[in-house]
Design brief:
Elements lengths: L2 E7 L8 E7 L7 E10 L2 H8 L10 E2 L2 E10 L11 E6 L6 E5 L3 E4 L11 H10 L8 E4 L5 H12 L4 E6 L2 H10 L3 E4 L5 H8 L4 E6 L3 H5 L5 E9 L12 H7 L2 E4 L7 H16 L7 E5 L3 H10 L5 E5 L2
Parallel strand pairs: 9-10, 9-12, 10-11, 12-13, 13-14, 15-16
Antiparallel strand pairs: 1-2, 1-4, 3-5, 3-7, 3-16, 5-6, 6-8
Helix pairs in contact: 2-3, 2-8
This protein binds NADP nicotinamide-adenine-dinucleotide phosphate (NAP).
The site of NADP nicotinamide-adenine-dinucleotide phosphate has 26 residues, from helix 1, helix 2 and helix 3.
Length: about 325
């Protein structure tokens, strides 16, 4: 039996529930691809999976779900449109390993020569979906957690969509400098005393859209910055605290608070967004910096994710 290195989750909790093990290389079934993985994205969802906030898709112990990038090794029966040797990306139900199974319904092709580590674009697909939540065209957007994966994509995609005012909220001045480079019109750290005033001054008529996955008081304070008819999109709750809304403000301004999950996005839209982002990466108009760790150093990678110091993405490299 051919073996591979994999990160196996044996329960729910801290890093101690994960271990690096030798596991059999899986066989692709009907409609599936076996992929030799070159890079794995460590997304915030992996922390939530590890903690059990999101239940594991396979009975534990199991290799953890992950977004991967790699090369097709072989295909199961009935597979069309994919060939061995092609570069692909997508979310594998057991992706934290040197080899992973990708169902073709979850797989996206990447061109040869595409920059290594830039192929994992699920954060960009989510950012596209979030930006599409406001009715009609928008001229301004306010993005919290802006130096993270979704934030880094959302700022650049907003810029590519010619959204005039892009407000970014971060947790440090270093991160604010980083998101300014990505294209934010105004970038403020919550540590600055006048952070709300600065954001308000950049969009005196108010923001058409707020994207937030932090929740809690920090998000609640941003609702008054929305324009008449504005939309707040809540797409996660990293602080674990609720967003509080003043009913009078909601009524007078005709505001909307909506939730959005990328799982509800139309598959045809996702494919189009993926292809557009591939082109944007190739032309140099989209790039999310990667912080790379070796697969064996997954514990350090999780610690970095949880430190809130990271700008851009964290990836694990298999070789
Ligand atoms: N709805 C969907 O379809 C969907 C899809 C993918 C991901 N998500 C969610 O989107 C969120 C962001 O994902 P990501 O990959 O962008 O994460 P990320 O890169 O790890 O972090 C984004 C930013 O969130 C802030 N943050 C981190 N921990 C926090 C905490 N405990 N409380 C408040 N803010 C915190 C940090 O910004 P500062 O410290 O600078 O504020 C960080 O830079 C997660 O909740 C994830 O589950 C939702």
């Amino acid at each position: 039996m051919h073996m591979m290195k994999a990160i196996v989750q044996s329960g729910y909790g801290g890093p101690e529930v994960l271990s690096l093990r030798e596991m059999p290389i899986p066989e692709p079934q009907a409609g599936e691809l076996l992929v030799k993985v070159s890079a794995i994205a460590l997304n915030y969802a992996n922390k939530l999976l590890r903690e059990g906030v999101f239940p594991a898709p396979s009975p534990l112990p199991a290799i953890m779900l992950a977004e991967v990038e790699g090369i097709v090794v072989s295909a199961g029966s009935g597979v069309e449109g994919f060939q061995p040797g092609q570069r692909v990306t997508g979310v594998s139900m057991q992706g934290f390993a040197e080899y992973a199974i990708l169902h073709t319904s979850q797989a996206f092709l990447l061109p040869d020569g595409f920059p290594a580590g830039q192929g994992m674009l699920s954060g960009g697909i989510t950012a596209h979906h979030l930006l599409a939540q406001a009715p009609g065209g928008i001229s301004s957007v306010l993005i919290t957690g802006a130096a993270g994966v979704i934030g880094s994509f959302a700022i650049q995609l907003a810029r590519l969509q010619d959204i005039r005012v892009i407000g970014a909220v971060t947790g440090s001045s270093d991160k604010s400098a980083y998101v300014k480079k990505l294209g934010a019109t105004v970038a403020v750290s919550r540590n600055e005393e006048d952070w709300l005033l600065q954001l308000g001054a950049a969009a005196p008529e108010g923001y058409a859209l707020l994207l937030d996955a932090g929740g809690g008081p920090a998000a609640s304070q941003l609702l008054p910055l929305l324009a008449h008819g504005g939309t707040a999109v809540l797409y996660g709750n990293m602080s674990g605290k609720p967003v509080e809304a003043d009913g009078n403000l909601m009524a007078f301004r005709s505001l909307r608070i909506v939730g959005a999950s990328v799982f509800a996005a139309n598959p045809a839209d996702k494919l189009r967004w993926h292809d557009e982002m591939v082109q944007a990466v190739q032309t140099g108009s989209l790039e999310v910096p990667v912080n790379a760790f070796a697969l064996e150093d997954f514990g350090d990678a999780f610690a970095a994710l949880e430190s809130r110091q990271i700008q851009g993405k964290i990836i694990l490299q298999t070789a």
